[in-house]
C-alpha cells in the first residue's frame, strides 16, 4: 500500500470504510480540466517567482499534458485511496516525472485548489446554461411568430379572465428566461475571483504572485481575504439559486402545457416525438417530458437546499463538509440543462389547436372588463361600470348566452346610457383590438414585442 501524500505523521493507514466514505474522486474527477489548468498556472507562477526552476516547471507542464491525454483517452487510473481529483493528479505526476512534481504543491493547499477548480467550472457552466436559455427563447419565439393572431382565453385563479394573444403568453416565458440568464451572468461576475494562493487559510510566507495566477486563469482579481477565499461557498448558493429559479419557471410552463394537452382543454397537441404511451392503456399519449420537467424542478430546489444547509453551521475556515458541495452542484447544473433542453424540444414539437381555442373563447364572459371600459368612455365612474356590467353578466348567465348576444333593449333595461357602440367592445376579437397600454396584449403592442425579441435574438 502506498503512503498518502500527507502520510508523514501517520503510523497506521485509514480503515477501508473511512477510505470509501471520504473519497470524492468518483465524482470530483469531473473537475480534472480545471484542476490541470490551475496547476499549470500555479507552476508557471512558481517558476516566474524563482520558487522552482524553469526546467522543473517544464517537466511539470509536460507531465500534466501527458496526464491530460491519459484522462481523455480513459487510460488514467483513478484511485480511491488517493482521495480526490487533486491528489490523483499530483500523485500520478510524481509517479510520472519524479522529484520535480513534488514541488508543484509549493504554496498551495487543496483548500484553495478545490475552490479554484470549482469557480472555474462554474464560470463555464454559466455560459453553457445561458446558451441553453437562448435556445429555448428562440424556440418559444419561433412558436409565437408562427401563431400570429391566435387568441386564447387568459386565466386568473384558473378561471376565465380576459382574452390574450397567444403570442403575448409565449413572450411572457421569454421575458422570464431573460431575467434567468441575467441572474446567471450576474453571479458569474461575482464568482470570477481567484482563491488560488490563499493556501490552507492564511496565505503563505513564500513570495508568490496571486495576481499573476489570477490573470492567467482569467479571473478578475485574486480574492482579498485568504480565509474568505477557502471557506465560503456563497457563489454556489447564488448559482444554484439561479438554477432553482429557472427550474421553477420551467415547471410552471410545464404545468400549463400539461394542462393544455388534456382532453378537457385540448389547446395544445404535442407531436409523437415528444410523447410517450402507456404499458397497459393502448389509447394513451402522455406529455411525460413536460411532467418530468415539472418533477425535476424538485431536484434543483433540493440541490439548493443541500448547499444552504451544508454551509449554515460551518465555522471559519475550510471544513471537510465542503466536499459535499460538488454532487449537488453537478446535479443542479446537469438537471437545469436537461429541463431547458427538453422544454426546447417540446416547444419545437407542439401545435396549437386553433379551432378548439377559437371555440373556447365564446364562454366565460372574457369581454366583461372591456365592456366596463366602454362605460368609462361614456363618463361613468369605474366602480359603477363594474356594477352595471356585473348585472349584464348576471342577465347573460340567466339567459344562458354571452354578453354579445344580449339585445340592446336588454342592455338598456340595465342602464339606458348603453348604446349600439357597446357591441364593438364585445367578443374576444374586439377586446384584443381595444387593448393599447404599454405591455398589454393589444395587437400592435404585441407586434412591437415580437419585433423587439426577434431583433434581440437575431431571428428573421
Ligand atoms: N476533496 C476536498 C474537497 O472537495 C479537497 C479539499 C480537501 N482538503 C483537506 N484539507 N482535506 O473539499
UniProtKB/TrEMBL annotation:
<dbReference type="InterPro" id="IPR008948">
    <property type="entry name" value="L-Aspartase-like"/>
</dbReference>
<keyword id="KW-0028">Amino-acid biosynthesis</keyword>
<dbReference type="InterPro" id="IPR022761">
    <property type="entry name" value="Fumarate_lyase_N"/>
</dbReference>
<comment type="pathway">
    <text>Amino-acid biosynthesis; L-arginine biosynthesis; L-arginine from L-ornithine and carbamoyl phosphate: step 3/3.</text>
</comment>
<dbReference type="Pfam" id="PF14698">
    <property type="entry name" value="ASL_C2"/>
</dbReference>
<dbReference type="GO" id="GO:0042450">
    <property type="term" value="P:L-arginine biosynthetic process via ornithine"/>
</dbReference>
<dbReference type="GO" id="GO:0004056">
    <property type="term" value="F:argininosuccinate lyase activity"/>
</dbReference>
<dbReference type="InterPro" id="IPR029419">
    <property type="entry name" value="Arg_succ_lyase_C"/>
</dbReference>
<keyword id="KW-0456">Lyase</keyword>
<dbReference type="InterPro" id="IPR020557">
    <property type="entry name" value="Fumarate_lyase_CS"/>
</dbReference>
<keyword id="KW-0055">Arginine biosynthesis</keyword>
<comment type="similarity">
    <text>Belongs to the lyase 1 family. Argininosuccinate lyase subfamily.</text>
</comment>
<dbReference type="InterPro" id="IPR024083">
    <property type="entry name" value="Fumarase/histidase_N"/>
</dbReference>
<dbReference type="GO" id="GO:0005829">
    <property type="term" value="C:cytosol"/>
</dbReference>
<feature type="domain" description="Argininosuccinate lyase C-terminal">
    <location>
        <begin position="366"/>
        <end position="433"/>
    </location>
</feature>
<dbReference type="InterPro" id="IPR009049">
    <property type="entry name" value="Argininosuccinate_lyase"/>
</dbReference>
<dbReference type="Pfam" id="PF00206">
    <property type="entry name" value="Lyase_1"/>
</dbReference>
<protein>
    <recommendedName>
        <fullName>argininosuccinate lyase</fullName>
        <ecNumber>4.3.2.1</ecNumber>
    </recommendedName>
</protein>
<feature type="domain" description="Fumarate lyase N-terminal">
    <location>
        <begin position="8"/>
        <end position="302"/>
    </location>
</feature>
<dbReference type="InterPro" id="IPR000362">
    <property type="entry name" value="Fumarate_lyase_fam"/>
</dbReference>
Amino acid at each position: 500500500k502506498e503512503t498518502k501524500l500527507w502520510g508523514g505523521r501517520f503510523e497506521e493507514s485509514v480503515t477501508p470504510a473511512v477510505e470509501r466514505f471520504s473519497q470524492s474522486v468518483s465524482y470530483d474527477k469531473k473537475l480534472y480540466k480545471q484542476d490541470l489548468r490551475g496547476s499549470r498556472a500555479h507552476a508557471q507562477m512558481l517558476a516566474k517567482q524563482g520558487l522552482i526552476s524553469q526546467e522543473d516547471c517544464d517537466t511539470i507542464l509536460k507531465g500534466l499534458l501527458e496526464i491530460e491525454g491519459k484522462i481523455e483517452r480513459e487510460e488514467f487510473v483513478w484511485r480511491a485511496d488517493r482521495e480526490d481529483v487533486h491528489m490523483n493528479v499530483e500523485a500520478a505526476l510524481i509517479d510520472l516525472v519524479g522529484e520535480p512534481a513534488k514541488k508543484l504543491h509549493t504554496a498551495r493547499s487543496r483548500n484553495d485548489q478545490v475552490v479554484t477548480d470549482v469557480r472555474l467550472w462554474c464560470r463555464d457552466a454559466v455560459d453553457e446554461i445561458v446558451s441553453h436559455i437562448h435556445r429555448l427563447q428562440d424556440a418559444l419565439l419561433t412558436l409565437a411568430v408562427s401563431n400570429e393572431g391566435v387568441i386564447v382565453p387568459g386565466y386568473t385563479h384558473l378561471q376565465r379572465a380576459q382574452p390574450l394573444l397567444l403570442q403575448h403568453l409565449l413572450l411572457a416565458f421569454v421575458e422570464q428566461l431573460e431575467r434567468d440568464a441575467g441572474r446567471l451572468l450576474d453571479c458569474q461576475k461575482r464568482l470570477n475571483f481567484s482563491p488560488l494562493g490563499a493556501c490552507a487559510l492564511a496565505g503563505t510566507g513564500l513570495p508568490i504572485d496571486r495576481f499573476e495566477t489570477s490573470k492567467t486563469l482569467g479571473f478578475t482579481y485574486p480574492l482579498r481575504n485568504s480565509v474568505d477565499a477557502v471557506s465560503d461557498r456563497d457563489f454556489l448558493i447564488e448559482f444554484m439559486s439561479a438554477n432553482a429559479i429557472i427550474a421553477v419557471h420551467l415547471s410552471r410552463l410545464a404545468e400549463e402545457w400539461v394542462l393544455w394537452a388534456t382532453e378537457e382543454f385540448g389547446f395544445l397537441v404535442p407531436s409523437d416525438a415528444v410523447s410517450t404511451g402507456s404499458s397497459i392503456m393502448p389509447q394513451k399519449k402522455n406529455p411525460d417530458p413536460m411532467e418530468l420537467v415539472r418533477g425535476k424542478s424538485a431536484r434543483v430546489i433540493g440541490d439548493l437546499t443541500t448547499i444552504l444547509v451544508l454551509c449554515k453551521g460551518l465555522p471559519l475556515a475550510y471544513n471537510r463538509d465542503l466536499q459535499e458541495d460538488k454532487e449537488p452542484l453537478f446535479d443542479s447544473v446537469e438537471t437545469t440543462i436537461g429541463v431547458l433542453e427538453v422544454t426546447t424540444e417540446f416547444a419545437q414539437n407542439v401545435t396549437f389547436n386553433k379551432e378548439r381555442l377559437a371555440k373556447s373563447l365564446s364562454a366565460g364572459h372574457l369581454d366583461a372588463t372591456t365592456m366596463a371600459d366602454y362605460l368609462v368612455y361614456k363618463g361613468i365612474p369605474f366602480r359603477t361600470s363594474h356594477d352595471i356590467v356585473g348585472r349584464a353578466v348576471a342577465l347573460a348567465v340567466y339567459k344562458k348566452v354571452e354578453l354579445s348576444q344580449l339585445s340592446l333593449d336588454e342592455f338598456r333595461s340595465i342602464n339606458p346610457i348603453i348604446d349600439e357602440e357597446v357591441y364593438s367592445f364585445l367578443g374576444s376579437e374586439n377586446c384584443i383590438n381595444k387593448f393599447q397600454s404599454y405591455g398589454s396584449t393589444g395587437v400592435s403592442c404585441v407586434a412591437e414585442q415580437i419585433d423587439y425579441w426577434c431583433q434581440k435574438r437575431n431571428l428573421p
